[in-house]
Amino acid sequence: MENEEENRIHTWSNDSYGYPRRSSTRRYLVSALVGIVIIYLLFFVRLPFFIFMPGTAEEIKPMVTIPKGSDLEKGTLMLTTVRVADANMINYLIGLVHPYEEIQPKTSVLRKGESEQEYTQRQEYVMLTSQASAIQAAYTHAKVPFHINHEGVMVLQTLPGLSGEKVLKPGDVLLKAGEKDVKVAQDLLDSLKGKKAGESITVTYARNKVEQQATLALGALPLQQGETGEPRAGIGVVPADMQSVKADQEDQQVSIKAGEIGGPSAGLMFSLEIFNQLVPEDITKGYRIAGTGTIETDGTVGPIGGIQHKIIAADREKADFFFAPKDVTYKDGTKITNYSDAVQRANQIKTKMKIVEIGTMDDALKYLAALPPK
């Protein structure tokens, strides 16, 4: 009986009050909550940094269409990209020790007052202008007659506190301001001449190719550096001209679909691919040719960022040659060493790919012309 009573009392104290079970459950809950918080901090809290790493090397031919274009390309012309990721704690720590990743503060990439959405839109815009320059350069070198069409003004950025911010979005295309057609940015400025803050203007614009209209109140624009006097009135947008390059003969018209690739750095490689489709011979001669560099309408090749990452991307796709913009020194002493940086990274990864220094589209064409067929 005595033992039975002791057992009964022991069972009652655990089951009725449940001290050990409640304490254990609480510990589990606290551990789970701590785990959730740690996972959230590591993976979902965004840090004020971008992480740059090797992207892709992509064949350009499927992106370029010319009705009467040549289809004799035996080799491959490839553009190269840099992958950009938002930093969280995990990939930031990896980036600190990874030999081929680069961490940069967002403030060094974004313009003053520019949002990430506006940065993305700016990259899309400069890709479009780069393509237009590549088409002009290729037409000029292939002696194809062409003309320029002005097709409105794109909104790249809106200024905080002004009416444009409430109605317009980056990527919208302005078509009319008041009764004036807007073909170039100067047309927008001309439509606002003589107007004062507090007045209004009706703006016609296209968003996703759907035409819309809104009446916007004019506000005082912030003074630019070195600007004095009474602030100008405006709607508060950063405009950029939209234009297209049209071949005089429709069957030589170039169209480019590059997907979500942004930035100006594929200009050189686009110009070479377009040229290759416009002329009867195949400039690739069976080789895999990757590269990078901006392009001007006269064929001048300019420097770009992230070339060390693009070298790795091209090597992964087994490129035979990589066209790199030549090193340049500007009047203010600033140096951009694309070619030297490319050679250095190529040596680090021990690639068999040959790095070729390019200053103009002519340099690239002459180099390819001198190669024996593969």
Q: What would your notes on this structure say?
A:
By secondary structure, this protein is α+β, with helices and mostly antiparallel strands. It is built from 10 helices and 20 strands. It has helices spanning 2-17, 19-43, 89-97, 116-142, 163-167, 185-192, 267-278, 307-316, 338-349, 361-370, and strands at residues 49-59, 64-65, 76-86, 102-105, 146-158, 173-177, 180-181, 200-207, 210-217, 219-220, 233-234, 237-247, 255-256, 288-291, 294-295, 301-302, 321-325, 328-329, 335-336, 354-358. It has a 6-stranded mixed sheet, with helices on both faces. Strands 5, 6, 7, 8, 9 and 12 form a 6-stranded antiparallel sheet that branches. A two-stranded antiparallel ribbon has the order 2-13. The longest helix has 27 residues, at 116-142. The protein is globular and about 65 Å long. It starts with a helix and ends with a helix.
**Number of helical segments with 4 or more residues:** 10
Could you estimate the helical fraction of the residues in percent?
Answer: 25-40%
Poorly predicted runs are 1-19
Quantity of strands, as a count: 20
Rounded average pLDDT: 90
Head-to-tail CA distance between termini:
101 Å
**Side-by-side strand order of the widest sheet:** 4-1-3-14-17-20
Task: Write down the overall geometry.
Answer: globular
Order of helices and strands: HHEEEHEHEHEEHEEEEEEHEEEHEEEHEH
Q: Rg, please?
A: 29 Å
Derived from helix and strand composition plus strand pairing, the structural class reads alpha+beta
Largest sheet: 6 strands, mixed
Strand content: 25-35%
